[in-house]
Design brief:
433 residues, alpha+beta, BirA Bifunctional Protein, domain 2, 2 domains, 8-stranded mixed beta sheet, elongated
Length: 433
């Protein structure tokens, strides 16, 4: 959520950011409405404080005047106190409505784009920052290879759950499990993350805190049963429960940075992806992912973004998978993002780089919704923290990349050396018998 003070002190900064995001006139009009609301809220609050000051000043004087026999003065002060009290109540009632509308509108506006984020209308305009590895010139698609191996069964998955689900069996199922363990071990043992296991069902307020709601409700799976009196949803990513671990908390500076990693299944309705990637494991309703979350001081967040991105790159390098890093432009940085990178792995079957990780710096946008703050040593006031997250990695897409990049002419798939310990020494996946 944006700082409401911006609409009093620098609304042009908000307009400029929205323009970089290619916002339409309806969205820009929200800024004008918020400018008016914030000004009105401040005026109401100031007048209300004056009324309460009058009441607090005169109330004790009334009794003194009565004791001194100054009945006329006491009666006059009673009238003033009554009028001030009634006016304060009127102002408070109006203030409740103003604050509610202000909060509702703030939830509809995206984050401010970081000045370092490049301009651009969409992902086609994301500049390539660097590349690693040598792309394989050609190859079969992963679903064709996995089907031929006898270890991928979308038809039986459809009988159980419908389209955009899959069943893996044998060594391919083992490979997915191996990737999960490999990613977790790498981040815990080598990079020093704290692993957490978190709930896969969350309340509406948790998704509001991490900015999936209210904008992206159509992309979520909503349950019919509530949790603690709120609407309940399946998580679209571990970012939601992990970042919410510290909602409404004040952390000590000495405890920072906080760095978590978590494996979870992820559930997405893909409402906005009709007709896209309908084959295979690229865009499905349920998939596995290892996610990392950083909670840091504001001055440390840019370095943290580079760290998260580097850790995700290490996963791909250890697996020997060619990839490129792109800077997400203003039109692609995401609703809550201020700045971010995408890692795109090379898929020979598509002859294209495809996203396998997004690493994002949210600045204090999530922290304001979550009331997530810290107290600097020696200071009494609190400061909003910065939050970041990244995929390390999307497991199903990594499996896709391995199958396509390590395919052999006979249809078998070489197991990357980094995974063989997790595969009980298996170095090649052959046709199921």
């Amino acid at each position: 959520m944006l700082d409401p003070n911006l609409f009093a002190t620098n609304p042009d900064a908000v307009r400029a950011s929205l323009t970089r995001r290619n916002a339409g006139p309806d969205t820009l009009a929200i800024v004008d409405r918020l400018v008016a609301l914030v000004a009105r809220r401040r005026a109401l609050s100031t007048e209300g404080d004056r009324c309460r000051a009058v009441r607090n000043e005169l109330s004790p004087k009334i009794g003194a005047a009565m004791k001194a026999g100054q009945k006329d003065d006491a009666d006059r002060m009673k009238v003033e106190v009554r009028a001030a009290t009634e006016r304060a109540a009127q102002l408070d009632a109006e203030l409740v409505g103003i604050e509610a509308e202000e909060q509702d509108l703030l939830l509809t506006l995206p984050n401010l784009v970081d000045p370092a984020t490049p301009d651009g209308a969409g992902d086609a305009e994301n500049p390539v920052i660097r590349r690693w590895g040598e792309p394989r010139p050609s190859g079969k698609a992963h679903d064709e290879l996995a089907m031929a191996l006898g270890m991928y069964d979308p038809e039986r998955a459809a009988k159980i759950s419908g389209a955009r689900f899959y069943v893996l069996s044998g060594p391919l199922a083992q490979l997915e499990r191996a990737l999960i363990q490999f990613f977790l071990d790498l981040h815990v043992a080598e990079h020093g993350y704290r692993e957490v296991m978190v709930p896969y069902l969350v309340r509406r307020s948790a998704l509001v805190g991490t900015t999936q709601l209210p904008k992206f409700e159509a992309d979520l799976f909503k349950l019919t049963t509530q949790l603690a009196g709120e609407d309940a949803f399946l998580i679209p990513t571990a970012e939601v429960p992990v970042t919410n671990l510290h909602q409404d908390e004040i952390l000590e500076e000495a405890a920072l940075p906080v760095r978590y990693c978590a494996f979870t299944p992820c559930f997405r309705s893909e409402a906005g992806a009709a007709g896209r990637d309908t084959r295979g494991l690229i865009r499905v309703h349920q998939f596995h992912k290892v996610e990392v979350v950083h909670i840091v001081r504001p001055e440390d967040s840019e370095a943290a973004l580079e760290t998260i991105t580097g850790h995700a790159e290490t996963c791909l390098q250890r697996l020997g998978l060619p990839y490129q890093v792109v800077a997400r432009c203003a039109g692609d940085v995401g609703f809550g993002g201020a700045r971010g990178y995408d890692l795109e792995v090379w898929l020979p079957g598509q002859q294209a780089y495809r996203e396998i990780s997004s690493c994002t710096n949210f600045h204090d946008f999530q922290a304001r919704r979550l009331k997530l703050r810290f107290k600097r040593e020696g200071e009494k006031k609190t400061t909003f923290l910065h939050t970041l997250n990244g995929s390390a990695l999307a497991v199903g897409r990594t499996l896709v990349a391995i199958v396509e990049n390590y395919q052999e002419p006979d249809g078998s798939v070489i197991v990357p050396e980094a995974l063989r310990t997790y595969m009980r020494g298996l170095d090649r996946i052959h046709l199921a018998l």
